[in-house]
Fold:
Amino acid sequence: MWTWLLVAALAQPSVEPVEGETVEGEVPVPKGPDQAEYNRLTQELEKLAERNAWAGVERTWGKLVLTQISPTYEDLSYAANAARALGDTAAARERWLMAKERKEDPMVFDALFEIDQNYGSVALQCDPGVGWELTTEQRPFQPDRIRSVEFAAAAIADSCTFEGMIPVGTYIFCGDELVVKASQPPAKRDERGRLPPKGKK
Structure:
């Protein structure tokens, strides 16, 4: 009987995965670099950036990365400006650093200097659905800094997790003071398991 089972198993046709498809239980076969799609997306990225359609730039950037083609300085500049406009300062800084490797542009150095002097890193966690918030009474005046605070606050309200950069200053996170400083290791705060604030469930 065992011999019959072995023969039956060997007789089963093998299924070779097509590029981009998977056989159940196996790791996906990655697609190779897609130059044609990259060319299309980089043009779309430029057009959206010219219209200051930053949300569209961010979505297109995500697709462009998947083409596995190394982005140009211009691509990275558009993506950095999109992240900054949407409030994701950490992503903007990372993209500016990549842009600096491709071209020494004073604008890039100025952007990085401004972030490093006026923003600090944080890593915040709490239990979602409890009602915890990230707030500050020191509301900045600059639009990009306001969006950065709003981006972090929205992440806390949505998932109670945020790891990124926010303007230097004093905040209230889970009812306690949180001081954010520039050029310092991330201010880490893990409040998971903490009882909810009074009046909230």
Notes: Residues 143-159 form the longest helix (17 residues).
